[in-house]
UniProtKB/TrEMBL annotation:
Species in which this protein is naturally found: Enterobacter cloacae
Signal peptide coordinates: none
InterPro entries, per database record: Ald_DH/histidinol_DH, Ald_DH_N, CoA_reduct_LuxC
UniProt KW NADP keyword: yes
Protein name: long-chain-fatty-acyl-CoA reductase
Known role: LuxC is the fatty acid reductase enzyme responsible for synthesis of the aldehyde substrate for the luminescent reaction catalyzed by luciferase.
Lineage, top ranks: Bacteria, Pseudomonadati, Pseudomonadota, Gammaproteobacteria, Enterobacterales
Family: Belongs to the LuxC family.
Record pathway: Lipid metabolism; fatty acid reduction for biolumincescence
GO molecular function: acyl-CoA dehydrogenase activity; long-chain-fatty-acyl-CoA reductase activity
Pfam families: LuxC (PF05893)
Keyword Transferase found: no
Documented EC number(s): 1.2.1.50
Entry keyword set: Luminescence, NADP, Oxidoreductase
């Protein structure tokens, strides 16, 4: 286990904690002492004034309230004897602010000690969360042995050393990062969990939207799912699919984007580089398919492009930054070709259950791991990306009584 690498800096924990992690005894999932610590962390996080400026930080705090975790514990009741695997190495994505914290919570709730490599991009949210963790650890000293949050650049020897000492590794970083990290072997019985490049889709029923009285709230939900992360999260829809009669879809789209733009006026304007990137990506695909129609907007806060059909490649190559493809369909089965293995989440607004069933059971898409209401795409759970993290981060003891 690395102890003295000059390039390693500690935001939570220290070199001594890191060195001793290999000797830590695993705990049972939803250990009472860990739940008490997370309750303190939640309370501390909510008490920090700066937290209220970031909806993703507030959501994190609510996610790990004691009542929510106890309810989660009941959901995951098991007949077997489960124990944490030992040390879990979490490699956070560079472009999403709070993902590292949810990964850490998954490791703690499954009874493990955790080493987290923080995002390389600087986020204020990371500072807030680290501050709350350090304050909570002052009240729960016994928890210090379970948490080490570190920063380093591209020193492969550090990644190699930690990988060699862990019992599970979570790679949140896309296909190229996964391929690189997997060059560094794990112990023979360790588990490697990789969260590859994915994209997500939103489906909106025009009739439902037109009848909705809470259109500003819908705009906020759409923002939280998409532009809160500049569409960098795999959960962030890049494609908006409209269902319903032709005239109803036209009316719903006009209202939806107008109200969304109005809601965004209360937010900071996007950086110029994001606007340029969105336009460049649109132009690249418009050059290949002249049918991709640019739709003018009153501001430059986002960019819309209507397509007669959307390919998987368009969504796989999507770079975020506020570019939204729109697709008007007559039959939900039309979207099956873009629901391949790279498709992670389907966000829905007012889509009838029978339409969803038709898509899943008749269309039989190879992808789609989650179907959630609009506004909930970033809601983390221990079932993520098709993985049951409770099972994968624990070992089951087979105990046959004589």
């Amino acid at each position: 286990m690395p102890q003295n690498f000059d390039a390693l800096s500690y935001r939570v924990g220290n070199a001594q904690v890191l060195a001793q992690m290999a000797h830590i005894k695993p705990r049972v999932p939803f250990d009472d002492e860990i739940l008490e610590f997370l309750q303190t962390f939640s309370r501390t996080l909510l008490a920090l004034a700066q937290s209220r400026e970031f909806s993703d930080v507030v959501s994190l705090a609510f996610w790990c309230r004691k009542s929510a975790l106890r309810q989660m514990k009941e959901t995951y009741a098991s007949d077997g004897i489960l124990m944490g695997r030992g040390v879990v190495f979490h490699i956070a994505p560079s472009n999403v602010a709070v993902n590292f914290a949810y990964s850490l919570l998954a490791g703690l709730l499954t009874g493990n000690a955790n080493i987290v490599r923080l995002p390389s991009k600087k986020f204020i949210q990371v500072n807030i969360i680290c501050q709350a963790l350090n304050q909570a650890l002052e009240e729960h000293v016994a928890m210090r042995e379970l948490i080490c949050l570190v920063e380093y650049n591209h020193e492969d020897e550090i990644t190699q050393a930690i990988s060699a000492a862990c019992q599970a590794r979570l790679i949140w970083g896309g296909d190229r990062t996964i391929a690189h990290i997997r060059k560094f072997p794990l112990p023979a019985r360790a588990v490697d969990i990789a969260f590859a490049d994915r994209y997500s889709i939103c489906v909106i029923n025009a009739d439902y939207y037109l009848a909705a009285e809470n259109k500003m709230r819908i705009a906020e939900d759409f923002f939280n799912d998409t532009l809160l992360t500049q569409q960098q999260a795999c959960t962030a829809p890049k494609l908006v699919v409209w269902t319903g009669e032709k005239d109803r879809k036209a009316a719903a789209r006009e209202q939806f984007w107008l109200i969304f733009d109005r809601w965004l006026c209360g937010r900071p304007a996007p950086e110029a580089v994001a606007v340029v990137n969105a336009l460049a990506n649109y132009c690249r695909y418009a050059a290949e398919d002249p049918r991709l129609k640019y739709i003018a907007a009153p501001t430059r806060r986002f960019l819309r492009a209507e397509a007669t059909a959307v390919s998987q490649r368009m969504l796989e190559d999507h770079r975020g930054d506020g570019l939204f493809y729109e697709w008007l369909v007559d039959d939900i089965l039309e979207i099956v070709p873009v629901c391949g293995v790279k498709c992670q989440t389907l966000a829905t607004l007012g889509v009838p259950e029978e339409m969803i069933n038709r898509l899943i059971f008749r269309g039989a898409p190879k992808g789609i791991d989650r179907i959630v209401p609009l506004g909930q795409t970033m809601n983390f759970s221990l079932h993520w990306d098709g993985y049951d993290l409770l099972k994968m981060l624990t070992k089951t003891l087979a105990f046959k009584r004589g």
